[in-house]
Amino acid sequence: MVAAPRKRVRAASLSAWIALVPMVATALGAYVLTILWTARVSVSSSRIFPSGDFVGLGQYERLFRNARWLLSLENLAIYGLLFIAACMVLGFLLAVFIDQKVAGEGVLRTVFLYPYAMSFVATGLVWQWILNPELGIQQVARHLGFGDFTFDWIVQQDKVLFTIVIATVWQASGLVMALLLSGLRGIDEELWKAARIDGIPKWRVYLSIVLPMLWPSLSTAFILLFVLVVKLFDAVVAMTQGGPGTASEVPAKFIMDYLFGRANIGLASAASMVLLLTVLAIVAPLYYARHKAMQRGVK
Questions:
Q1: What residue ranges do the domains of the chain occupy?
Q2: Are the C-beta atoms of 123 and 168 separated by less than 8 Å?
Q3: Which pTM value belongs to this model?
Q4: How far, in Å, CA of 266 to CA of 46, rounded?
Q5: pLDDT tens series, the chain, 299 aa
Q6: Count of helix runs (H) and strand runs (E) in the chain
Q7: Axis-axis angle for helices 160-185, 105-117 (nearest 10)
């Protein structure tokens, strides 16, 4: 009598594993094999078509002698620091604001999170119009009587990167808000009561107690934002096409240009591998630390 239920459990477990086979095969084919193929091409002299020869690290040496690639890395570093910092701060402030049980909370959550549901291409085009000196904020302000008002950052080489930060922060900060708000809602109300009794200022509670407790949500938000930084492409193409000149060039655009525009898949593959290794070097230790912290929390 006991053996029959056990057999049914084993059969159900086996069926579940069989159902996972297509997904596992797809993941292996689409990700692992693709990465291995890209790594192989990156150590060849491939141009328009893949080549079976081996040139060692020659493509990587050429890559880091390429001024456009080095500029794209510099731009990505500046953009990443500003974007992640701004999203974290703004998302946290929005989460704290909504956590005060404000009226119309559901509507506000939707309004703040809605931009993240939009395509980065759509966001880029909208902000291109808003920031266009002939159509957007500058022109509106001058029509209102501010004849000397100037806001032409999108056509200034030393400021164009900040316009991309503004547009993408507007889009992604709602995601951080949603993640941190869920963390704030998980904090015991007794903590706030104890803080009020002890007369601790609210800002000190948030800084010294709440933020450390939000570590899982903060680390998740950081990983998601970091991935968005590395993937930055659509917004740049929609807003600036990498210009003026190459002032807003980013690695993903560099890769796409060399892959399709200049037909140099060897160099493009080397650049792709550099980005992949950068992501692994930053995200893997953070994920490991987060996993260990969660294990300690369970114990």
A1: 1-33, 43-298
A2: yes
A3: 0.86
A4: 5
A5: 445 566 665 666 677 677 778 877 887 777 888 888 999 999 999 888 888 889 989 999 999 999 999 999 999 999 999 999 999 999 999 999 998 887 888 888 888 888 888 888 888 888 999 998 888 899 989 888 888 888 899 999 999 999 999 999 999 999 999 999 988 888 888 888 888 888 888 888 888 888 888 888 898 899 899 989 998 999 999 999 888 988 999 999 999 999 888 888 999 999 999 999 988 888 888 777 777 766 665 44
A6: 15, 0
A7: 140
Location of structure tokens 């369970």:
298
The token pair at 170 is: 């507007």
**Where do we find the tokens 């192989």?**
40
232, 24 Cβ separation under 8 angstroms: no
User: Residues near 158 by Cβ (< 8 Å), separated by ≥ 6?
Assistant: 247
Fold of 43-298: MetI-like fold (1.10.3720)
- Spatial separation of the C-alpha atoms in residues 75 and 240, rounded to whole Å: 14
Residue with tokens 């297509």: 22
Which tokens is 177 given?
A: 């808000």
Query: For residue 255, with 0-12 CB atoms within 10 Å meaning exposed, 13-18 middle and 19 or more buried, which class applies?
Result: buried
Tell me if 174 sits within 8 A of 86, measured CB to CB: no
